[in-house]
Amino acid sequence: MPDILTSAYGLDADLPDVLKRILADKVEEVRQRSGAKSQSAIESAAANAPRPRDFVGALCERISEGRIGLIAEIKKASPSGGVIREPFEPAALARAYEAGGAACLSVLTDAPWFQGAAEHLVAARAACKLPVLRKDFLISPWQVFESRAMGADCILLILAALSDDQARELEAIARSLDMAVLAEVHDERELERALGLETRLIGVNNRNLRTLVTDIATTERLAPLVPPDRLPVAESGLRTAADVHRMAEAGARCILVGEHLLREVDVEAAARAMVEAA
């Protein structure tokens, strides 16, 4: 499958094994979905989608209030943790996160690895007023239009999975649709590449995609390198108020938290504890 990734999508074949397998599945998924709906049809659907909500503005508002800008995640399962929450009710989770003070939502739409679906994002967004990030592995312009068509206000670009040219192309399409972009990095080289994009949002993934090992010291190392005109977002591995304090001290007053919140009985209270941990 590396030859397909390289030739069809301009991706580096020398990828971590887990990411390589995920992207191989994603290539086939994009082929099937784009075959079922043409480029012109998906662009038309994107143009007729609900007006985008201000993702970056929502995070900045929380920070200006002296609180943490929480991007609360909705996902049914993960490769490392299996099924996370049953019953899984995206709309109810969205309302609970909103009541708990989250600034934004993140919704997993990848099916093979996270048991996600576009319907999860649609239901979550309709249930609240929060801006929503589509959390998926975007490799094709078609997917950016698809993200807007389903109502996403922000997309994720994983630098480990994209060439520089591809990242710039996907970002340009997102910006033309008035969507925000969260550029995700894990090391200094990826951070340098992300800073070549226009987006203010720089996500620092504390999870190593080679090993799936998580270390929040990754944000402590990289966040201080993010220029003041950008907004670092700490991702993965955050469970306690002490963890949130560590991220804030490193310069990341925005966090993306999923599994910890989803495993709590009272997700509203868990979200509130994160928001007020600063």
Structural features, described:
There is one protein chain. The chain has 278 residues and is of the alpha/beta class. The protein has a single domain, classed as TIM Barrel (Alpha-Beta Barrel). The chain contains 14 helices and ten strands. It has an eight-stranded parallel barrel with strand order 1-4-5-6-7-8-9-10, surrounded by eight helices. It has a two-stranded antiparallel sheet with strand order 2-3. The N and C termini lie far apart (45 Å). Residues 1-15 have low confidence and may be disordered.
Outline of this structure?
The chain is an alpha/beta fold.
CATH H level: which superfamily?
A: Aldolase class I
CATH class: Alpha Beta
Content of β-strand: 15-25%
Which residues sit in consecutive blocks of at least 5 with pLDDT less than 50?
1-15
Largest beta-sheet details: 8 strands, parallel, barrel
Count of spatially separate domains: 1
**Element order: H for helix, E for strand:** HHHHEEEHEHHEHEHEHEHEHEHH
CATH architecture: Alpha-Beta Barrel
Query: What's the number of extended β-strand segments?
Result: 10
- SS-based structural class? alpha/beta
Residues in helix, %: 40-55%
What overall geometry do the principal axes of the alpha carbons give?
globular
What is the overall pLDDT average? 92
Provide the spatial order of strands within the biggest beta sheet: 1-4-5-6-7-8-9-10
Distance between the termini: 45 Å
User: Count of helical segments?
Assistant: 14
CA gyration radius, whole angstroms: 17 Å
CATH topology: TIM Barrel
Pathway: Amino-acid biosynthesis; L-tryptophan biosynthesis; L-tryptophan from chorismate: step 4/5
Protein name: Indole-3-glycerol phosphate synthase
EC number: 4.1.1.48
GO molecular function: indole-3-glycerol-phosphate synthase activity; phosphoribosylanthranilate isomerase activity
